[in-house]
Design brief:
The protein has 223 residues and is an all-alpha fold. The chain contains eight helices and no strands. It has one domain. The N and C termini lie close together (8 Å).
Length: 223
């Protein structure tokens, strides 16, 4: 249980989740009304009005420090397994997957900034045409980076489920994949507001916050 009772990497992870999570809320807390003609459903009506252009800029800055804070956490996520080979593989996959996470955060922020900028200083039709074209161009690459981010978590979930970790299987109810699915889908199914849109944007980092808090409590009980 040593890796779970030596909790510094968990604290780093919580810091990263908070930093990136604040950036997520800065991006997503806005009017979620869909815009006709936009092919990327993350671009909503809130970005066409008086949306503060500093919000995606601050989100990118927070993202930088958040990713740095996540790095030791990703290593620790791989070290909760029993076998040396599994530990090494999980840690490497998790850290490599952070590349996809960082790029997606920056690309997401930059595309929202560009759309909001064009809506404010040009016109809505130019903004929609530009972002639709950009989205079509980057979507294949974005899908690959998203896959790179998610695959380590799928492997992580599977290895815990097969009993390879120091955790009991029941801890999987707190796993990031479980709570990402809940936070991403459930709120907007109930109601579609600025808050639920922010929660949807916050889903991945929010799920990490839940997971790491659960690990912190579990490790404390084992000290």
């Amino acid at each position: 249980m040593g890796i779970l009772t030596k909790r510094l990497w968990i604290y780093f992870g919580i810091l990263g989740a908070v930093l990136l999570g604040v950036g997520d809320w800065l991006l997503g807390y806005t009017d979620p009304t869909p815009i006709e003609g936009v092919c990327w459903n993350a671009l909503v009506k809130g970005y066409t009005g008086s949306y503060n252009l500093l919000r995606p800029v601050v989100s990118m800055v927070f993202g930088f420090f958040g990713v740095l804070s996540y790095a030791p956490c990703m290593w620790g996520m791989g070290q909760i397994f029993k076998e040396t080979k599994t530990k090494r593989m999980e840690s490497i996959f998790m850290i490599v997957g952070m590349g996809g996470w960082a790029l997606l955060h920056y690309l997401y922020s930059a595309m929202i900034y560009l759309f909001a900028f064009l809506c404010r200083y040009r016109d809505g039709s130019t903004a929609i045409l530009t972002l639709n074209s950009l989205y079509d161009a980057v979507m294949p690459g974005m899908s690959l980076w998203l896959l790179l981010m998610l695959l380590p978590f799928l492997l992580h979930f599977f290895d815990i489920a097969r009993g390879s970790s120091l955790l009991p299987r029941k801890m999987l109810i707190f796993h990031p994949l479980v709570w990402w699915a809940i936070l991403y889908t459930l709120p907007t199914d109930i109601c579609n507001t600025a808050f639920t849109n922010g929660l949807k944007t916050f889903a991945m980092n929010g799920s990490m916050l839940i997971w790491l808090t659960a690990l912190l409590i579990y490790g404390k009980d084992k000290r």
